[in-house]
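dumping this here before i forget
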Amino acid sequence: MRVSSNMLVEQMITNLQRNTERLLDQQDQLASGKRLRRPSDDPAGTERALRIRGQLATLEQHLRNIDASQVWLATTDKALENQSDIVQRARELAVQSRSSILRADDRQAIGREVDELIKRAVEIGNTTLAGRYIFGGHKTTTQPFTASPATGSVTSVAYNGDTNSILQNIDRSVDVPVNVTGRELEPTTSPP
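structure:
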């Protein structure tokens, strides 16, 4: 087969065009900082990149869940600390009220303070975070505690929540409870 000069020129032009395309691709990669600009550039690499992107999105969601859990738990911890202070003060008042030297007006003052402590405990029991009640179990839109009567001396407190735990997914197949329900706040021992 005879190779004509036209064939050589056409072959050179084809090679030059192919090299120009590769050069443009390399410049695009360099300019964009990305090796893969189209899925067809590397199908296996594209699949790997998509899988990694999905894993990264899952990890980022887990981090958001962990952050939200930490805020929820910190809010719960502060509320429980305040409740503990109220219980401690109520115990002090209970011991003080046993004194035989108290007058009737002293006992009434203790009664009023205990009533205020109960109202404050109900307020703390109805603590919210981002518009959700933290002690209501799954019933985060329902006020967990109501005092009766709403004004004057409190005669009873009702729990309106449930006993379900709120679970946060913090890792693959790892769900942790992040709440304390109002039922768990009920005292297990009677005051002294």
